């Protein structure tokens, strides 16, 4: 079970507002806030954290690494995607259905974006068929 996911940053103060805005849309706030580390969520669900690397070296983006944020519905996927872009993020794939419906007619729906440091995220939900 995942408790939280940590992403590296080279400028915590500059990049924290990106996550503050997305967390607010999802009904969460900062659950931990230190000089070099901030985590969003609560202790009942998996959270997302932004940290300056503990080894003192520069943070870098993991190739193939992505954090998926579970949205309530397709409208919230779109809002999160728009919030990400409005807060310095960049597009990696506009919100929309991905793949074919499953055996129950549900479709994976997602919008992909990067934070200001280049970390890849998405907001997703399953739409009812």
TrEMBL record:
<dbReference type="InterPro" id="IPR037523">
    <property type="entry name" value="VOC_core"/>
</dbReference>
<feature type="region of interest" description="Disordered">
    <location>
        <begin position="87"/>
        <end position="107"/>
    </location>
</feature>
<dbReference type="InterPro" id="IPR029068">
    <property type="entry name" value="Glyas_Bleomycin-R_OHBP_Dase"/>
</dbReference>
<feature type="domain" description="VOC">
    <location>
        <begin position="1"/>
        <end position="126"/>
    </location>
</feature>
<dbReference type="InterPro" id="IPR004360">
    <property type="entry name" value="Glyas_Fos-R_dOase_dom"/>
</dbReference>
<dbReference type="Pfam" id="PF00903">
    <property type="entry name" value="Glyoxalase"/>
</dbReference>
<protein>
    <submittedName>
        <fullName>VOC family protein</fullName>
    </submittedName>
</protein>
